[in-house]
Design brief:
By secondary structure, the protein is mainly α. It has one domain (about 10-155). It contains 4 helices and no strands. The protein has helices spanning about 10-85, 95-100, 110-125, 135-155. α3 (about 110-125) runs antiparallel to α4.
């Protein structure tokens, strides 16, 4: 089977076949390029979304930690204020003046603090009918609460560190 007397028929079939294969290869490469580009964009979007989610969660945790740090001191300070209110009386002006300095802000000197502790111990041991059992308890507790408030307010929030702790389940 000769075409145009050129000698072999396969030479005439090679050019269209090579063109067909080259077209198929180029189509495959173009399709693969665009598919791979789409996959990379999708992966980048997923990573970006994951990073945004992570940043939001970290920001929420920082905000919650800040609220916890703010809540710890005021709880003790509020309890201290309740005890001071219960112990404040018109007939104890020296002790009342010292309790006013408990704050906020805390402005008691060490000597005044010791004087207040002695006065509170006397109040706790006083057995007159003017002092209720609740006042005795408040006088006993206030020195401990003062110490706690001083310790908590002295903490620098930058010195605190958030730690994740795994605990075993109680139902196992």
């Amino acid at each position: 089977m000769e075409l145009n007397g050129s000698g072999t028929w396969w030479k005439a079939a090679v050019v269209p076949l090579a063109t067909l294969l080259a077209g198929a290869l180029l189509t495959f490469l173009a399709s693969w390029f665009w598919w791979f580009k789409k996959v990379r964009q999708s992966d980048a979007e997923k990573l970006s979304l994951a990073a945004e989610t992570l940043v939001k969660r970290v920001n929420d945790l920082e905000r919650q930690l800040g609220l916890v740090n703010q809540a710890i001191v005021p709880i003790s300070a509020a309890f201290q204020a309740i005890l001071v209110k219960e112990l404040t009386h018109f007939h104890t002006p020296v002790m009342d003046a010292l309790m006013v300095k408990l704050g906020p802000p805390y402005i008691l000197t060490d000597a005044e603090e010791q004087e207040l502790i002695v006065a509170l111990a006397q109040r706790a041991n006083e057995m007159s009918s003017l002092i209720t059992e609740s006042e005795r308890d408040a006088a006993t507790m206030l020195p401990m609460v003062i110490k706690r408030v001083k310790t908590e307010t002295a903490l620098d929030s930058s010195a605190l560190r958030l730690r994740v702790v795994a605990l075993p389940r109680e139902d196992q």
